[in-house]
Amino acid sequence: EDTFTLDIDDVVLQLKYGNDEEFKCAISSLNVLIRDSLVTNEWINDEGIVPILFNRLGSSRPNNRLTIIQILRSLASENPENKEKMAEAASLLTLVKSLARDVEEQREAVGLLLSLSDLPAVRRRIGRIQGCIVMLVSILNGDDPVGSHDAGKLLNALSSNTQNALHMAEAGYFKPLVQYLKEGSDMSKILMATALSRMELTDQSRASLGEDGAIEPLVKMFSAGKLEAKLCALSALQNLSSLKENIQRLINSGIVVSLLQLLFSVTSVLMTLREPASAILARIAQSESILVNQDVAQQMLSLLHLSSPVIKYHLLQALNSIAAHPSASKVRRKMKENGAI
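Now predict its structure.
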């Protein structure tokens, strides 16, 4: 028994001070001791095993790092107190660095972060670590199914913070942002719509947002919201409307009638909305489906003399697109009859 106790003491010494080879032997021994329940949680606590492992994690070789994280996962699952010890900001920062390493290490690191994320302090701290959300989104979109699944669950846990949801959107993961647009508070909806209006989106991002269902809640904000909500919703829709598939979604949402009503409105507070509204109409008019709205061209013609130069420009763009549609012969005839020229 004395010899075994000495061995355990050696394990702790080598964990603290051993070179790479000695450390490798020490973590293998520690793994066996924990697996076979030869050491108690009290011993792990008294010897400071968790801080020692985190201390060595940053400077260890790849294989040793992998074993360290696996041991930490095992300790986290066994005892909530161990989780609390892993929740320190410095420990989480070290662990997040493993998200940028090879697939196996990534997988283990995401798994450990996920198991720690039931602590509010951990969720708060992880979200603040620079680059963490970007790496998690990258793992979510990666080829490792286990890592991707765990990254998705962790991102979901982190998205309870609106700032994190915005960082996710900036990294190309839009589902949490869309969820806020659908179900968030009025302030959250305005925050998300404003962010969307300012983002430099690729067509791929616009497609993702359309597929994830961003357009319907934005149209709802425009139709039913107060002035600030209307303005940021329109600006966001303007940013999304340059993609053909999203134009069809806008038409399906029934927004054309609301946009025309707005352009006819003489309410002074709504004047700021007219330019983005006319710009969206010009985009929508590129689709032949706009012709399902009867008299749309006639209404636009009658708006021309009421409008500012910028709005006139957008309306003329829209009329040009409508008149050019192959199936618009009736519309063209009607425009001539009503003195369009």
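The two ends are 104 Å apart (CA to CA).
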